[in-house]
Amino acid sequence: MNKNNNIPGYNPYFDDGSNDRYPSEYETMKTYVNTSGFRDSYEATGMPNNIIYPEEVALQRQSSTKKLLDKEIARGDSMKKLTRGDSEKKLQTLNKFDPTNAYNSSVTVKKPVTSYEKFQAWMINEGSRKIFTVSWIVIHALIFSMAFLNYFFSDNLNGPRQTFGMTYVFARSAAVVLHFDAAVILFPVCRNLVSIVRQTPLNNVISFDENIEFHKAIGWSLLFFTIVHTVSHWVNFYRLAVAKNGGVLMWLQLNFATGPGLTGYVMLISLFIMVATATQKARRAHFNRFWYLHHLFIPFFGAWAFHGAFCMIQPDREPKCSDIASFWKYWIASGTIYIGERVLREIRARQTTYISKVVMHPSKVVEIQIKKNNITTKAGQYIFLCCPEVSIWQWHPFTLTSTPEEDYISVHIRVVGDFTEALAKKLGCNFEEEAKLRKKNRDRIKSQYDGIDISSDNPELQKVLPRVMVDGPFGSASEDVFKFEVAMLVGAGIGVTPFASILKSIWYRVTYPKKSTKLRKVYFFWICRDYDSFEWFQSLLLAIEEQDIQQFIEIHTYLTGRLRHSEVGNIHVNDDGNVKDTITGLRSPTQFGRPNWDKIFSNMREQHPASDVGVFFCGPKPLGKQIHTKCNLWSQGFEDGTRFYFGKENF
């Protein structure tokens, strides 16, 4: 059982079991062969082995016969200058591809040669992010250094320096850096602000899609300089107690019986609790604990507002207390915007919102369709959802699976934790009786993959559906898919959810073109571990593949987990001569084992020369890092090269 199941706030659409180890290619194929028991029997009977291993369709195309009209291709017009393009012709005949040998095949990477080409390739995915990170560290170092020099050489602080020594300089310098961090720490969690700013050219310099990571980095900086500040003052109090012969009693009084001491410990304890419960392991184990205790930022900032108001350590000359309690000057900008966002959430929550349909899907997935006036969405965005009948305080993020072209917004929620189970119960979902409901509604259900509309089937339930509140929508990396000519969408397991909205929106734009789109070709890769993971998403994929006559969207599914003996037997019986895949029902066959990303990127670069390819990923971190690395490896910095831009969902 997944350990995340006990997390009330756990959002299944942003997790794909990243804590579970991906099996190696060798282990995957060995397990598949040994558990099936078929490969040896095939060799003994002379039957072909490719029944177990379907043909590889992950872009293993025959060598391209396309010729360029000109030797040098302008990047923006590359697709138009090809004599034939993937977006304007049917799928080419694919090479037969043995997965057992794919992982040992070598692919040569054409690397940048000159320093300029290397710099251009580095700037595609890494440059701006690393430059910003280094700049942020340099800013901290400059602030600390300037403050240190000021407190060390100031002729108005000779008395404090003689009394406390260098620890006084360190304490005050760290305090200046802390004020700077406090001034910006709330900006990354102002989601409306981030959604607006990420649409500006500034997003090319600062990766606003990593706003939560930036928030965490500032939090660690706060913790570090808080420790420096606190330890320095412990030493200062010790020296003051020694100078006045006060002993341990005076040291304790300075710590716990003074205004700076009391407010300092309120801040210190609050910060330690927030950090301890916000680590990834602790947050996933007890999300509610993290959510509620993270609101200790209120007493943290409240105590900080008075921490420097007591004028405990005074300068040499008058006015001695003219610049005390200045924290509000630093906090006012981000604090005002953050409070404004919380007020905006309350306003949005009170707007008329109601559930129009509830659909039970296989694999314990429930679809909620919501009607709300005056809401404008984009493909790939997400919302925060609250159900007051479950908890008025809990707001959880869910990716939108509806498109802007539809007259409702929808989310698909996998029932895996306390919050989702309570919500499903309020919605009238009973997955234990799913088989009975399917039998009752067999006239309306076209296939095993379709959901059951329990709301329209039960008029009484429609009257008692719970009230929900919606905040958002908010922007994400997947919004940028329409900025590229070619897009690679990679979803691992339930991480495929953000791409439901994108795939439907792409289909709408191609089928009913109201405005031109730069996008010419989409490759969709779905990587799952088990047989049942495909079920709930099948109806959408089947509909897209059925109506995508021009093969605008290519769908590739990979099964990386171990198959049961009965499943292998079912594939053997039904796959012989079948046009559609036995597991998914799609035209493209399911691949067994992990994708060979080097071959995929190599073929992608061959098929789309001189193009900017957007690679969008949602899933476990290890796989995301691997694909990120491949984007950097296969990107070309020269003028007519292919560049892969990596984008990852961060919530």
TrEMBL record:
Protein's organism: Rhizophagus irregularis
Main localization of the protein described in the UniProt heading: membrane
Location(s) in or outside the cell: Membrane
GO molecular function: metal ion binding; superoxide-generating NAD(P)H oxidase activity
Keyword tags: Electron transport, Heme, Ion transport, Iron, Membrane, Metal-binding, Oxidoreductase, Transmembrane, Transmembrane helix, Transport
Protein name, as recorded: FAD-binding FR-type domain-containing protein
GO-annotated cellular components: NADPH oxidase complex
Any Pfam family matching the protein: NAD_binding_6
CDD domains the record matches: NOX_Duox_like_FAD_NADP
Entry membrane topology: Multi-pass membrane protein
Transmembrane intervals: 131-153, 165-189, 217-236, 256-278, 290-310
UniProt entry tagged with the keyword Transcription regulation: no
GO biological process: defense response; monoatomic ion transport; superoxide anion generation
Domain (FAD-binding FR-type) ranges: 342-480
Keyword DNA repair: no
